[in-house]
Design a protein that fits this description.
The chain has three helices and four strands; from the N terminus they run αααββββ. The chain has helices at residues 2-26, 29-41, 46-53; strands at 58-61, 67-71, 83-89, 92-99. It is globular. The N and C termini lie far apart (46 Å).
């Protein structure tokens, strides 16, 4: 009885986590939404960004006057995406994300 309960709990957990990861992977905006709300609550200027992380490897001009500050080799763990993008608007970071 106890073994069946443990197996049932494990199967439920795997299915639940699989469903969550699939829904998050399918929704590319999840992390951007989190990132946008984070930077609304914790504003960071371009000056603060470069003081903390140094000069970006590349700056890409985007539409609407936004810029993409690209930092290479941001994560030291080779299993994690290694490029961090900070999207800048009006001299402030509005969102950030990791990308391979």
């Amino acid at each position: 009885m106890k073994k069946k309960l443990i197996v049932a709990c494990m199967v439920s957990a795997v299915l639940l986590l699989g469903g969550i990861s699939t829904s998050l992977a399918g929704s590319g905006s999840f992390m951007n939404c989190w990132s946008e709300s984070y930077f609304q609550d914790h504003p960071m200027s371009v000056q603060q960004l470069t003081e903390k992380y140094g000069q970006p490897a590349k700056i890409i001009d985007m539409k609407d006057g936004q810029q993409d500050y690209v930092y290479k080799k941001f994560e030291s763990n080779s299993m994690l995406p290694s490029t961090r993008h900070f999207i800048i608007k009006d001299g402030k970071v509005i969102k950030s994300f990791l990308k391979d």
